[in-house]
Amino acid sequence: MDENIALIIEWVLKAVILAFGLITGFAYTTYYERKLLARIQIRIGPNRAGPFGLLQPAADGIKLFFKEELIPAQAYKFIFVIAPILTMVPALVILAVIPWGESFELFGRQIALSMADINVGVLYILSVASISVYGIVLAGWSSNNKYAMMGGLRSTAQMISYELALGLSFVGPLMLAGSMSMLDIVRAQQETAWYIFYQPLGALIFYIAMLAEVNRAPFDMPEAEQELAAGFHTEYSGMKFALFTMGEYVKMIAVSVIFSTLFLGGFDGPAIDRFVLLGPLYLVLKVAACLFVMIWVRATLPRLRYDRLMAFGWKLLLPAALFNIFITAVLILLFDLG
Amino acid sequence: MTPDVILFLILAVVAIASALGMLLSKNAVYSALYLILNLATIAVFYLLLGAPFIAMVQVTVYAGAIMVLFLFVIMLLGAEQLRRARTLGWQQPVAVVLAVVLVAEATYIIFTKTSSLPDIEAAEAGFGSPQAIGELLFNQYLLPFEITSVLLLVAMIGAIVMTRDGKKKE
What we know:
The complex is a heterodimer. By secondary structure, chain A is mainly α. Chain A is built from 13 helices and two strands. Chain A has helices spanning 2-40, 56-65, 77-93, 121-131, 133-142, 146-177, 182-191, 195-198, 200-213, 225-228, 238-263, 278-300, 306-335; strands spanning 104-106, 109-111. In chain A, strands 1-2 form a two-stranded antiparallel ribbon. Chain B is mostly helical. Chain B has helices spanning 3-24, 28-48, 52-77, 91-112, 130-138, 142-169. Classes of the chains: A mainly alpha, B mainly alpha. The interface between A and B is medium-sized, with 26 and 21 residues.
């Protein structure tokens, strides 16, 4: 019984640390993005609140807390209220299967640096990702506003289309490692090399598809402001609006973590076998690099037209992902890599 | 009662309530949402039965992909509100009669054959893992598996051909 209680305490602690880490990460990703965008556009960026503007996220949060929350009279109220929550929750739980390092010993207990190392880890990520579209669709529908509705529908179409390419680009690392457990995939990369070298095409497809999955520029169709006011969150204000932004940024972090784990060696890095606790640090550094590229892309590329976006996903990205699987399978058989 | 039984009872209540909600709600979007909840609950049942692979596939394919398309179509057509006109007609009384028969059958079996369930052994280690399922699919069930994939391909090509024809007529 003591063992069970200790396990429950361990899980709760890990979950709380992960959730708080993600929410802090969200706050400082907004700061990171604003500073970087400013830098790219030769501006200064936020620099008033605190030293170097470091308290800017806190100031934004306080502002949003005191904003008036409106619910449109014709809205479907229950769905309208839970839609932001439905966007936020998948973004927070998707990282449960990510390993942050090998296990280490603390107070005589082996503590694994992951929430759950399950043998269907990759499938878990895909299923949570396929659920995460509901928040946005329902937000668009329940607002009872044509722009919000259009934004919601666009996001559905876009996310379904790009989910296919995303799912297929998971298959490359999976075949090379011969396992669906994320920990096994990282270990296999430690033994050989990071999969971005074995799977350059797969990594590129994954990166493009994940930009579309989290509705980032140049794929931010659901909130194209010239066409749709603000898209699916037109009618949202105050903390509900903040939850959507939070969901978006936490998703950005989550997909970056997944990308780093699958293609950049996860927690792998110099001297990792001697100092286990360096793992999370390496992973955070890799995530920061991924986020940097995302923000860079946003600052550089214009938004795609909607029909081009769908054509690109179905006619180029999907065949390319299938081709990548085929090539990977042939190479594994030829050189006995698997 | 063990934790498994308590969990099962809670899930059973949720599953039945969501199924009823799906049938009875007047708004098609709410019906779809109840169905999603129902499918997700069934995924948890699979987890309880020690089949994580099936559980994850259930969520991805049914609760995720297929239901998103359902919602998409409902919203696109603006068909949320059920029309007042009765389109089912004679089917409703028949459905009631069949339901009564089903319930009667189930009660009869529950109250007469109490100990007819065979003892089952606990699943062996690795049961239901992706590897075990893959090996079964590609060895023992290779032919049905390939036939299914051909069927799906035919359906896909059929869908594309039908949309093409529609365009030509315009």
